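Could you join me in thinking about how sequence relates to backbone shape in a protein? To get us started, please write out a protein record for me. Would you write everything just below, so we can both look at the same thing?
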Amino acid sequence: MNRNVLVWAMVASALVGLVDSAYLTYLSFSPPTSCPVGDFSIFSCNEVIYSKYAYVYGVSVALLGLGWFIIACGLILIAWRDERFMRGVVVWSVLGAVGVAGFVYTEIFLLGSICVLCTIAHLAGLAILALSIAIVRAQSEPASMLSRTR
């Protein structure tokens, strides 16, 4: 697939995650019950956003997610200009995926509720990971083909 298409998809994912995380951050500083998604069976943004697990050392997890997406956007823009930095996007995305895994575990096993808005941010971050890996793999293919012919 064309590198520019993959990078544009990555930028789109980063922007979706950025906007979603900004909204989640806003909600995390608002009074409970302000989440428009509401409570539907196991899907409850309020249960997740206002839980004791929504803060790490007093810092909102949503704010950490917003910071993650701000840095991801910067790394993607740098990597767009200089493809050598795409590996940095992969590393940053792997760190984000570890955070996603921990938070999803918390949602499912500790809270018994899934935040739909949080899931959007999780999927956006995982999309960045998948797209950045695809770009790095495509970058290394010509080099590996050259080494086979020598």
Observations:
- Confidence is low (pLDDT under 50) at residues 144-150.
- The chain has one domain: 3-140.
- The longest strand covers residues 39-40.
- Helices lie at 3-28, 45-49, 61-81, 86-111, 116-149.
